[in-house]
Each structure stands twice: as structure tokens, then as C-alpha cells.
Amino acid sequence: MTMHASRTLSVSVECPADRVYAFRSNPENLPKWANGLCRSVRRSNADWIVETPQGPMTIRFAERNTLGVLDHVVSPAAGTGVYVPMRVVPNGSGSEVMVTIFRLPDMSDEQYAEDARVVERDLGTLKKVLER
């Protein structure tokens, strides 16, 4: 059995969980908060194509649900995919948004640390956008 190192990053957002979920589950909002990943986004059948700093990538999102599950798979190339678990959960009148990142087999310490920095920055942007 192979396991990868992982880290769960989170941010508290002073916004109701249903509003956070509605905003975050709409792929067209990605460029508004996830600029570490996405410069632009367009629909392609059941998937979405995002322009990233590394070039175009396909993203497939979990179906809309009532549990706050925002999981997605990012595919830099056909036949590959990186699973990204993400959740929004109520916390009183606000929410917690959590993302788990995995250290992929070919990632250096520096790449894994940079991935965490990008996700933390994007979560901070999500918080700012939703608290306006």
C-alpha cells in the first residue's frame, strides 16, 4: 500500500456555509479567487478547461451536493489526474473551508512547500472575496 504525505489547509470565513458553497462550487468563479491555479476558465462538455501558469488543464468537479463536498480532479494531461479533496462546513454563522494537498511522488520539498503556499494564498483570497 502506498500513501503520500498530505497536509490539510483551512481558512475561517465570516460567511454562511451555503453561500460559500454556492460561490465556490461555480467553476466560473475560479479566476476571482484561485489565481494561483486559474487565469481563466471555460466549459468543455462535463469538464472545465482552466488556463494555469503551467498551461491548460482540465478540472472535473464533484456533483453539487448538500454536504459541502467540493472535491475536484485536476488533469494536466490526458490520462493523468490529481485528486484535490475540498470541503466547506458550517461554523456558527460562518464557515470553515478545508483543502487537502498531497505530496506527489515526483515533488521536491520545495515544490510541495510552494503548492501549500499557493493554496494558502488562494484560500486567503477566497476569504476576502466572500467577506466583502
Task: Walk me through the structure.
With 132 residues, the chain is of the alpha+beta class. The chain is 27% helix and 36% strand. A 5-stranded antiparallel sheet has the order 2-3-4-5-6, with no helix packed on it. The termini are far apart.
Taken in chain order, the helices and strands follow as: EHHEEEEEEEH
The helix tally amounts to 3
Looking at the structure, what is the overall shape? globular
**Backbone structural class:** alpha+beta
| Unreliable stretches covering 5 or more consecutive residues | none
Q: Identify the CATH class.
A: Alpha Beta
Distance between the termini: 45 Å
Describe the secondary-structure layout.
Elements: E1 6-13, H1 17-24, H2 30-33, E2 40-44, E3 47-52, E4 55-61, E5 72-75, E6 82-84, E7 86-91, E8 94-102, H3 109-131
Antiparallel strand pairs: 1-8, 2-3, 3-4, 4-5, 5-6, 7-8
Which features does this protein show?
alpha+beta; Alpha-D-Glucose-1,6-Bisphosphate, Chain A, domain 4; three-stranded antiparallel sheet; 3 helices; globular; five-stranded antiparallel sheet; single chain; 132 residues; 8 strands
